[in-house]
Structures are given as C-alpha cells and as structure tokens.
C-alpha cells in the first residue's frame, strides 16, 4: 500500500489543469494504485491525481456501491435534473458546504490498461464524477458555491488549523455553474 500526502487548498497544483494521459504504462498503474490506497485510507469518495501533486487526468472513486478509476474522463448530464447537497474535499479537510450539481451523469474515458470505460451515476456517484473531473480542470468545488456560501467557506478555511495562509484563487469553471460565478 502506498499512501501519499494529499495537497491542500492553496497549493497551485490544485488550480492547474491536468494533462491528458498518453502512456498507459506501469507508471500509470502505480499512480492509480497510489490514488486508490490514499483515497481509501483517508475515507474519501474520490481522489484526483492533482490532489497528489500529479498533473494527469486520472481519478479514482468509491461511492454508492461503485468503485474504480477513470482516465481522461469526459462527462455529460443525462438530463436537466439538479441536486443540492453537502460536498467536501480531501484537499479541504473536515469542511462541507451545499453545492449544486447535475443529478444524473455519464462519464467516458479509459482504464489503466487503455480500455474504454463508461460510468453512469446518480446522486452521490454523479456528484463524485463531477467533483473529480473538476479537479482535473483546476476547478475546486468552492468555485461552484453561491456567493454567500463561498464567502462563509473562505472565512472558515482561513481559520482552519491546516490552512497555510496561501492566497486562494477563484477560478472560472469551463462547465455550467447554474447561475453562480
């Protein structure tokens, strides 16, 4: 088991879009294993490679009875249904806020062997797919919060014992934000 240190809010790697995976080699399989071991040890529903400081489009997930990994993911909403619900992040430990997401999504990508994969998810799994794909785009779920909730979140983060005081950045998401900035 190879548990890695998770990068925390304020680390620039979390705001940097990840590169597409082009080599489906042993190094990639090791990364997937490290992501999985770290996610499971920390009790997360998902974990993206940038959270371990690796700028590649890879994430693992384990929620709602589904578990696996996805490489170079692209997701689409299956309908217009939206869900509001608590969301947290291993890079913002111990903090949760309500966030709007699509309720039903499908994601397509590849597994660590270069074989095509499709994941269809609702509720928590849909939230996880969107959250982890956002990480690969350099977007944090804080960017999806409404203005008042985001201000409250930033106040709480600044008081958190793990926060280093690094200047946070708010990034514009390339995906629909449901009216939020």
From TrEMBL:
Its EC number is 3.5.1.88. One of its GO terms (molecular function) is metal ion binding. It holds the Pfam family Pep_deformylase. It catalyses: N-terminal N-formyl-L-methionyl-[peptide] + H2O = N-terminal L-methionyl-[peptide] + formate. Keywords: Hydrolase, Iron, Metal-binding, Protein biosynthesis. It is an enzyme of class 3 (hydrolase). Binds 1 Fe(2+) ion. Fe cation binds at residues 89, 131, 135. GO terms for biological process: translation. It comes from the Bacteria. The active site is at 132. The keyword Hydrolase applies. The keyword Transmembrane does not apply. Its cofactor is Fe(2+). Belongs to the polypeptide deformylase family. Removes the formyl group from the N-terminal Met of newly synthesized proteins. Requires at least a dipeptide for an efficient rate of reaction. N-terminal L-methionine is a prerequisite for activity but the enzyme has broad specificity at other positions. PANTHER family: PEPTIDE DEFORMYLASE, PEPTIDE DEFORMYLASE, MITOCHONDRIAL. This is Peptide deformylase. It comes from Actinokineospora iranica. The gene is def.
